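To assess whether the prediction recovers the assembly geometry, we first specified each molecular entity separately, as shown.
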Amino acid sequence: MSALPRPSALQMLHGFVVLAQKTAQTKLTYRLATLVSLLASVTSYGVYLLVWLAIYRENPRPGPLSRDEMLAYLIVAFLVNSLLVMSVELRFGQRIRSGLVASDLLRPIGFLALQMGQAAGDVLVNLVYALPLFGVGYWFFGSALLPHDGVALALAVVSIGLGFLIAFGLSYLIVQASFVLQSGYGVFFLRASLHQVFSGLSAPLVMFPRQLRAVAEALPFHHEIETPARIWLGLVAWPEALRLMAWQAAWGVGLLAAGELILSAVMRRHQVQGG
Amino acid sequence: MNTAILCEGLGKTYRRRKRKEGFWAGLRAYFSFETEELAAVSELTFRVERGESVGLIGENGAGKSTTVKMLTGILVPTAGRVETLGLVPHGDRRRLSQSIGVVFGQKPQLLWDIPARDSFELLKAMYRVPDDVYRFTYTEAVERLELGEFLDTPVRLLSLGQRMRCDLAASLLHAPAIAFLDEPTIGLDVLVKERVREHLVEMRRRFGTTIVLTTHDLKDISATCERLLVLDRGRLLYDGSRTGFEERYAEGRTLLVTLEGPLEGGARERLEQELAGEELALDFSVPRRLRIECTHATSAPRVTASVLRHLAVADLTVHGAELDAIVTRLYRNAKPPA
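The predicted structure of the complete assembly is given in tokenized form:
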């Protein structure tokens, strides 16, 4: 067999889908571990909710959102976050230290698509857990958790997809850092801290002090969580939603392009010694 | 185009931080950016035609894996030119990967937590393997490598031998034009090694696969390769046919003697006395057997005559040195580069 022609988009997509399925299958074997992680997130996020309830008890209007709007936002933000939690950095960290990354670099689907397909597999598994959680939220809060209409729903779904691109794009940059540093843990925790503060996971940006909000808006993190959550809850009109989604797309494409550029530079100078 | 691999003056020099032993030296090194260069591969020039089967051998650290990594595009050379299937591997790695298969020793490429069968399906989709090709490669691998019993077992539960067999099968499922096999039989028992070799031979016969095999087990080479590339400290020590290598470097002969009965009194001493001037080693450790390693082939007739004169011989055979012995001697005699 000689060098084959470049694959069509459909063939690439097929490879990508099978990869996502198999990654999900892999992840589903760790049922108990995933449930424990989920329980840990629900517990820690429950603390956020209690803190905000206490704040609203002391001051019924601490910002532009009412107590009910705030609770609905926090729950939707938590669900979006649960959906976009991926193991890209952890998986890759193990592979780079053990040298298994060598076979990842030799896949015709490409390194970016390989990592992204695995991340999509993570999201498939997250859906299995996020949907029942959403059901529980709906049981408590009712229609306050639902989009107002079909357009808001459609926009929110696309926005979550774009949020995935950004979340993955950031992880992909950390993967490149792992190539250089041999361990991506430091960068991973840096990103986790920035995500915690600036993604809108703990509070929407409108609740931030003015200067901190300006910083947060200049960074991509809030487009992972806050933007899809606000669009889902109808907190932004659709022209504004489209503008935000355009920003999401720009950040997503920019981060992936930056990741590819860095990968190409890293590959020129990286060293793999030993057999 | 019949050239599978072309290397001209290929080299790879690593730069690494200087490290010294001990805590204080380690602490000083932490604040220092002093580096040193290490030439892993230097001035490699060779060409491999399509369908050839090449054994790449050398001691640990000789540069075999670095060479394979440059040929596959994982490493970028620091000197020279390399082409694999007409492509510059590091420049067109993704396109090249469609047409090559790679096994990296004990680094499994299968998904750890799910059965090998699922990884095979994934590879079929990723490599866009046509159904008829997949039917053949899959069936051939399952039968030849006897994978059937454990195809549905998660890979993490497989033994080393089972996993290596699955890995080899996985790397050849898309019937690659070139198979780079970096120690594919490491840690395997004799029977499994035999199956792996048979599988390689069959894949080559069926698809004309070019094989580049690095190994420390020279029986792998004897069974599958016609050509040898011997590396020593990153340089090419020998490039030619396996038989040519044996003829060129197999200077010695081995005599295996079976005696009719126990040694008669003084026979051994008389023989040793007569052969005192020859460069050889006598081994009487097995009863009624004698093994003589002659350093030079030219001494074999004289030694044979002496043996027949002093001992009651039931059988005597003369062998050329085996590949293992030749390579061992070659490594021992190889001089470090100036």
